[in-house]
Design brief:
It is built from 6 helices and 24 strands. It is mainly beta. The strands form 6 sheets. Strands 4-5-6-7-24 form a 5-stranded antiparallel sheet. A hairpin with a 4-residue loop joins strand 10 and strand 11. The relative contact order is 0.15.
């Protein structure tokens, strides 16, 4: 006769908690159905915060692309097996309504998308956790100027920053469910004007703005892009001829006064068959991911993603086996995220 014994029957609950803390995200979602006590534990804000900050989580590269006029997403596990293990995450119904959605940023397992929903006739922001298949939709008031997204490391409260004018901004916190005005109060360096090309930072904890000073060695500030590499801000400085891109990284992440350090230069000279190329993100190990648009057979254009190895100055095609045949005006968007439980206990979140 087979007898099943529950862990709760012979292990103290305090020890159960320590064991559950070490369980991966996707298993925790399933464990919520074991008992009311386990569900209450896993859904608690304290447990979610601890699991998000203290436990090592699996990294993913999320890729958005267009195929036959349909927007698709694919998540690639970013470990030693990269890019063999990939899957199509379940996208929220609201995100599917967005026309040409932009990936604003990702933070602590949450991905922020923004776009216009023609069916609803309004601009929407979707904060999405691909790991637990939950999302929150937020209506974007008035016209979009500039957006930023992040999770406060102290409170674990997701925040959206919207700059509306030169000196005015709005902040949306998920806990309050409302927009509020904040003053930028920028202490700008001598000679600064808002017609200049400058980078503006926002402290998620203190909610203070700052100006990131650019070195004189950074050429042609009109061709700057920003990205994230190993949780640090990086600045991509393309030259005027578009044959190279210098990657700069902030030495002290979050400190506007810290200088940018030159990491390496990506040379596009080897991509002689490319019609178009740019850096669209970085892997967990810091290697840049390059999007290339090349001429294909039959008049089609083939867009590929390639991992660039700075030390070897070559690249490996992510899509060697299945290149995407897409339209000339199609493009990739990428962001990195880690698995987390954020949004699990949010009352307005939608499971899908």
């Amino acid at each position: 006769m087979k007898i099943q014994v529950k862990m709760s029957d012979n292990i103290p609950f305090e020890l159960q908690v320590e064991i559950i803390k070490r369980v991966p995200v996707k298993s925790l979602v399933q464990f919520r159905s074991v008992s009311k006590q386990w569900k209450s534990l896993i859904d608690s804000s304290e447990f979610i915060t601890h699991h998000t900050l203290k436990q090592s989580q699996l990294h993913h590269l999320l890729v958005r692309y267009t195929k036959r006029s349909e927007i698709k997403y694919i998540s690639i596990v970013d470990d030693d097996s990269f890019p063999r293990h990939k899957f199509s995450p379940t996208v929220s119904p609201t995100a599917k309504l967005l026309t040409h959605p932009r990936m604003i940023a990702s933070s602590h397992g949450l991905v922020c998308l923004c776009g216009f929903a023609y069916d609803l006739k309004k601009h929407l922001i979707v904060v999405w956790n691909p790991s637990i298949r939950k999302s929150v939709e937020i209506e974007l008031p008035n016209k979009l100027n500039a957006l930023g997204f992040g999770v406060c490391p102290k409170t674990m409260d997701p925040k959206i920053v919207r700059i509306t004018r030169r000196t005015n901004a709005q902040v949306y916190t998920l806990s309050s469910g409302a927009w509020r005005r904040v003053s930028m109060n920028l202490r700008v360096p001598p000679g600064f004007t808002f017609c200049s090309y400058q980078l503006i930072s926002f402290d998620l904890t203190n909610e203070e703005f700052g100006v990131i000073e650019l070195q004189d060695s950074i050429e042609d500030p009109e061709h700057l892009c920003i990205s994230k590499r190993k949780e640090s801000l990086v600045v991509l400085n393309y030259d005027k001829s578009d044959v190279a891109c210098v990657v700069w990284m902030m030495t002290k992440n979050g400190d506007p006064k810290s200088l940018l350090t030159k990491l390496f230069t990506v040379s596009f000279n080897a991509f002689h068959d490319s019609v178009y190329h740019k850096i669209v993100g970085f892997r967990k190990n810091g290697e840049p991911i390059i999007e290339r648009l090349c001429s294909g057979d039959g008049g089609f254009r083939v867009t590929t993603l390639e991992v660039y190895e700075p030390c070897m100055e070559n690249s490996n095609d992510l899509w060697t086996n299945t290149p995407f045949m897409i339209k000339c005006d199609s493009f990739f968007m990428t962001t990195s995220y880690t698995e987390s439980l954020l949004l699990l206990n949010h009352p307005d979140s939608i499971i899908h």
